[in-house]
C-alpha cells in the first residue's frame, strides 16, 4: 500500500505532461488600406484533438493607436459576439495620464487576449477586427502588422 502512495504523484505529473493544448490549424491576416485608414482582420482556428474540453487562448499584438471594432468566436458552429468597450473605463483619470515618449516597438503595441472553452474533437475560430488611422512620417504612411500568434 505504501508503494502505491509513492507512485501516485509521479503518475499525475506524467498525465499532466500528456495533456495537449488545442493546436492551431489556420492563421490569417487580411488588411485593407483606404485613404490612410487601415482595416485589419486577424483570424485563428484552433482544433481540440484531446479527449476532454480544453481552453483555447487567442492572443495577438495590435498597435496601441488601433481600436477593436469587432470580436467574434465560433465554437462548434455556435457564434459568440464580443462586446466592444472603450478604453476609458480602464482609467478614470485618463486626462491626467500621459505616456513618456518612447519609440521602441514594444511600447507601440498592446496585447489583445481572449479565451474560450473548446469541447473535445471540435474546432474554434477566433476573429478580431481592428481599425487604425495611419500616421505620416517623413512623407510616407507606415503600416505594421505583428504576427506572433503565441498559441
From TrEMBL:
Name a Pfam family for this protein.
VIT
Q: Which domain of life does the UniProt lineage start with?
A: Eukaryota
Record-annotated VIT domain positions: 8-132
The name under which this protein is listed is VIT domain-containing protein
Q: Which organism is it from?
A: Micrurus spixii (Amazon coral snake)
